[in-house]
Write a structure and sequence with these properties.
Distance between the termini: 83 Å
Shape: globular
Strand content: 5-15%
Strand order of the largest sheet: 1-2-3-4-5-6
Number of helices: 39
Largest sheet: 6 strands, mixed
């Protein structure tokens, strides 16, 4: 007789999570919750060919007082699968190396013949599996492995599957037995949901998924009693499972010191000496000479860097930044004088009173975070440098892309056979809150799928460099770009003690670089990159005060331009504040700040925080203000204050807000602060919920903004050309072209005689300087053809259409596009576009004949009407520059306005005199932003433009519900509403909208 097994005597060794990418059903947290409810002492999570969920699994297990055991199911096409369990750190590194080779052997981004040959079983036989325990239910796999030894090797008996034959063979071969439950689902509904996952994964209809790909009994998650009953004839298989569990150890994984890169083989003492030397050189370059303040700050930072062992990290980042002088170091690292002296950042932390402890402090338990922006089109070169120099010891941070928003409804709908139009309609209904019109079964599927990992992408720029092979710390897989990728996203990488460096691409740095180059070429002024500082320029300041910052990075959004108009303060410090205070939960404080800025008297909340918030008039603006106020008002330690800052920004979900609130109130009360003041300060702290910015980050970006604003003010042609060539910013290309024309500069169409590949200033016109469209605007013509065109033109100018046709030999699609776009107009000014078509066709038919160049077009071929040319312009180029889009439709607009009984249409220049009154306008949508009201209803801010300016509107919930379905980017509208003045910024409260086209 066998006794019923106690849960303390059984551990589930093979629970699969949803990190098996559409072959699993539960999150690591849900699996650990289940194990905790069952009373198990621990569990093993085993996913297919990856450790993507390992960090979350370990954290979830420890939080529930469970011992975690890590495993991976190794599957390779054409070979029997086996499971590898991690016994220790050595075994983990071995498993990661195997997985890395497996990923590259299955690299989907290269042709099969170019992939490295790899066989998991052969590798294990040849190299062994020290630190791992291996098991398989397949005799063929075990027979192959037995040739290398039996230590750590088990015959796997699977719950729900027959095992007598395997058990008999294993005993004869001297292999221990291991009882395992391949647990995937515990709920019957999930058994039915699983085939839908398979359909989504394989991009086929649910009806096409065979029953064999579903879940059967052996994949049901069993309890301890069921396992005991099933393996009652072989109790040693369960005993072996418990013994294996007891001898595993993952406690080292989330503990210990940070894993920093090493630099040039230097030890920590040598790295510190090198860093001090570089900083002293930086003092001469940045300041000219040491002062007491510089010496004190540098020594303070170096002590913390030495204590934390961060010297090599700084040297590595410095080495990377030196490869490209056009950078913007940002984030909290810009508060460090060491970063500033090395040239990693460009804002003086002493001059702007930047809070270093937001970046590093003695109690900080997470690694430092240095973010460096490079011009967007130079960043790949920097990546190549990193992965070449630190080859095998570097990888990018992953982005674990999950189903969310549209995808969690779209993918099940596709699998159920709905077409694109039906799916778009359903997504639109849900977006509008009309979920009652969406089939219930689809909503249930979408709700179940939300949050499931879908695939592994790339982090926007996070790179990890390790002192030894990176595959000792995480498995690595190839990406589409060819760069190696870690298993985890940002938080998981940091939890694994790996130190991330963010190397990010920034289009505005490309704009700045290219504008300076164009200014040097066309205006003969050489503006140095590093020393260029226009912060005292009065005309730039005036332009910023007026909110005329379209195209200026970081301060061109409608909300920021409106705020600048309200502030009417365009100095650098004000720009830093404006770009930080404008966060979702801070509207009430933004209004109060603006009022105080314009003279409203106020009482500081408390003397203890008066100095801290003096610069921002008693309003908390920057992320580090949370920490500073907690220290000054409630007596928090630097470490406590930093933890509060993290939980407010939702970066550390383990911490509880209520506990911090209690500590804050208790600490402040002990210092004599009233409950009323405590609550006011706490409410202001809560306004940082979600995203917010630290002052060093905003100051770094504001410096770039100011430089760009200066260039826009004095070199608008060069500036706008660079904005467009670098693929714009917040707005469409049409919006930037319209802005330039409003500034008085004509835009010349694409011309194969004069256009370069990119947009460029044209000072050859006698009347006024112009912007010439680039050839790349001809989007449907291949880049190689355009490059060939430029090469031929460089050899000799085209002598006419015949010469062009003979040298380039364009086909009909290319020729049709060139003619209809007007790109050939200047080549043969005497020819109309229809004549060009006639000439092309007759040239093709008579090519080679001696009189082919003497053909004449018939006289009846008339040119296209102007409206046809405008339509062609928009269809071929995607923009309209021969006239403003509204002007092109002026007759239609006026007719519709009369039909809708609208009053006389005004221009946006008339808006100021309509304050408090209703106005009728025509407008082209250029931007929109949806936001929820305090009650949770949706509203939207929309920017429109006409030939005079961009103007702002708001659709409150009632108008939103009525008009939202009509709103479409670049749509043309008639609208009406009341003009309202909000602290000097005007907007229109829309009550009528009609789409023109």
């Amino acid at each position: 007789m066998f006794s019923i097994m106690c849960n303390k005597e059984y551990v589930p060794l093979h629970l699969r999570s949803y990190f098996s990418l559409l072959q699993g059903l539960y999150s690591p947290e849900e699996i650990c919750d289940w194990a905790h409810r069952q009373g198990f002492p621990g569990l093993a999570m085993v996913d297919i060919n990856n450790f993507y969920g390992l960090v979350r699994f370990l954290k979830a297990a420890y939080q529930r007082q469970l011992k975690p055991m890590a495993g991976v199911l190794l599957q390779q096409a054409g070979r029997p699968p086996l499971t590898a369990y991690v016994l220790n750190q050595q075994g983990y590194a071995r498993a990661c190396a195997i997985l890395t080779r497996l990923f590259y052997a299955n690299n989907p981004y290269v042709e099969p013949e170019n992939r490295p040959a790899y066989d998991v079983l052969h590798d294990l036989v040849q190299q062994g599996w020290d630190g791992l325990a291996l098991c398989s239910p397949h005799q063929a796999a075990l027979e192959e492995l037995v040739s290398a030894g039996t230590g750590g090797l088990y015959a796997e008996l699977v719950f729900g599957a027959p095992f007598a034959s395997l058990a008999k063979w294993a005993r004869s071969s001297g292999l221990p037995l291991l009882a395992v439950n391949h647990g995937v689902a515990w709920d019957k509904a999930d058994f039915r949901f699983y085939p839908l996952l398979r359909a989504i994964d394989e991009n086929r209809l649910l009806s096409e998924v065979p029953a064999s790909e579903g879940l059967d009994e052996k994949y049901r998650i069993a309890g301890a009693r069921e396992m005991s009953d099933y393996f009652s004839v072989l109790p040693e298989a369960l005993d072996n499972a418990l013994d294996l569990f007891r001898c595993t150890d993952m406690s080292w994984f989330l503990s210990g010191s940070f894993i920093f890169p090493s630099f040039a083989g230097l030890n920590e003492e040598e790295a510190l000496a090198r860093l001090r030397s570089l900083c002293r050189q930086g003092v001469e370059r940045r300041y000219g000479a040491f002062t007491a303040a510089i010496e004190e700050r540098l020594n303070y930072e170096m002590r913390i860097i030495a204590q934390k062992g961060f010297a090599s990290y700084f040297l590595v980042v410095n080495d990377i930044v030196r490869q490209c002088p056009r950078t913007c170091g940002r984030g909290s690292s810009a508060a460090s004088i060491v970063s500033y002296l090395l040239g990693i950042t460009h804002i003086d932390p002493l001059a702007y009173n930047l809070f270093f402890e937001r970046f590093l402090n003695t109690g900080r338990k997470d690694p430092p975070d240095i973010d460096v922006d490079f011009p967007w089109d130079e960043r790949d070169r920097i990546f190549r440098y990193v992965f070449d120099k630190y080859q095998g010891c570097s990888a990018m941070v992953a982005n674990q892309v999950s189903f969310a928003g549209r995808s969690c409804l779209r993918e099940p709908a596709k699998a159920l056979g709905l077409d694109d139009e039906e799916i778009a309609s359903l997504i639109g209904l849900r977006r509008l809150g009309q979920v009652d019109k969406v089939p219930d079964y689809l909503l249930r599927a979408a709700g179940r799928l939300r949050g499931f990992p879908h695939y592994i992408g790339l982090h926007c720029g996070g790179v990890v460099i390790t002192p030894r092979a990176v595959s000792e710390y995480s498995h690595v897989q190839p990406s589409l770009s060819g760069f190696p990728v870690l298993a985890w996203e940002k938080d998981g990488t940091e939890d694994a003690r790996l130190v991330k460096i963010d190397l990010l691409g920034n289009r505005s740095l490309g704009v700045l670089r290219d504008t300076l180059a164009l200014v040097k070429k066309h205006r003969h002024r050489d503006i140095p990159w590093e020393s260029f500082s226009p912060l005292d320029d009065k005309e730039t300041r005036s332009m910023i005060e007026a909110g005329q910052t379209l195209g200026v990075f970081y301060v061109e959004s409608p909300a920021t331009r409106q705020l600048l108009k309200k502030m009417r303060s365009g100095d650098f410090e004000s720009l830093v504040i404006a770009s930080s205070i404008i966060r979702p939960a801070a509207n009430v404080y933004i209004r109060e700040f603006v009022k105080r800025l314009h003279g409203k008297a106020y009482e500081p909340l408390h003397p203890l925080i008066y100095q801290t918030l003096k610069e921002t008039m008693g309003i908390m603006v920057y992320q580090e203000d949370v920490s500073r106020v907690a220290i000054d008002l409630a007596g928090f330690s630097v470490e406590q204050a930093d933890q509060l800052r993290k939980i407010i920004s939702k970066k550390d979900r383990q911490l509880t807000m209520e506990a911090f609130k209690q500590d804050f109130f208790n600490g402040a009360s002990a210092r004599g602060v009233s409950q009323e003041v405590c609550q006011k300060v706490w409410d202001m702290i809560l306004s940082f919920t979600g995203y917010s910015f630290c002052k060093p980050h905003s100051a770094s970006y504001a410096l770039v903004s100011y430089k760009l604003a200066y260039l826009k003010r004095f070199y608008p042609l060069e500036f706008m050309a660079s904005v467009i060539n670098n693929q714009g910013g917040f707005y469409s290309r049409q919006t930037y072209l319209n802005e330039l024309q409003r500034m008085g500069f004509p835009v010349l169409p694409v011309c194969i005689v004069n256009s370069a590949m990119n947009y460029a200033p044209d000072y050859s016109c006698s009347e006024k300087p112009c912007l010439r469209m680039g050839l790349f605007q001809l989007a449907e013509i291949s880049r190689p053809f355009l490059e060939q065109l430029l090469e031929e033109r460089e050899k000799a100018p085209f002598q006419g259409l015949m010469d062009f046709l003979q040298r380039l030999k364009p086909g009909l699609p290319v020729m049709r596009f060139l003619i209809r776009s007007g790109a050939l107009d200047n080549l043969e000014p005497q020819m109309s576009r229809p004549v060009m078509f006639w000439f092309f066709f007759h040239h093709k038919s008579m090519e080679g004949l001696f009189f082919a160049d003497q053909i004449e077009a018939p006289a009846f071929l008339n040119d296209y009407a102007e409206n046809i040319k405008r339509e062609d312009e928009f269809k071929t180029l995607g923009v309209l520059v021969t006239c403003h889009p509204l002007r092109a439709f002026s007759q239609k607009i006026m007719a519709l306005a009369r039909r809708k009984n609208m009053g006389p249409l005004a221009s946006s220049r008339d808006i100021p005199r309509f304050q408090g009154k209703r106005i009728f306008l025509a407008g082209l949508i250029v931007a929109g932003k949806e936001v929820p009201t305090k009650k949770g209803d949706q509203m939207i801010f929309v920017s429109f433009e006409d030939s005079h300016s961009i103007y702002e509107t708001v659709f409150f919930p009632q108008a939103y519900e009525r008009f939202y379905p009509q709103l479409d980017h670049m749509g043309m509208y008639l609208l009406a509403g009341k003009v309202e003045n909000d602290l000097g910024a005007l907007s229109i409260n829309v009550d009528f909208l009609f789409r023109v086209c």
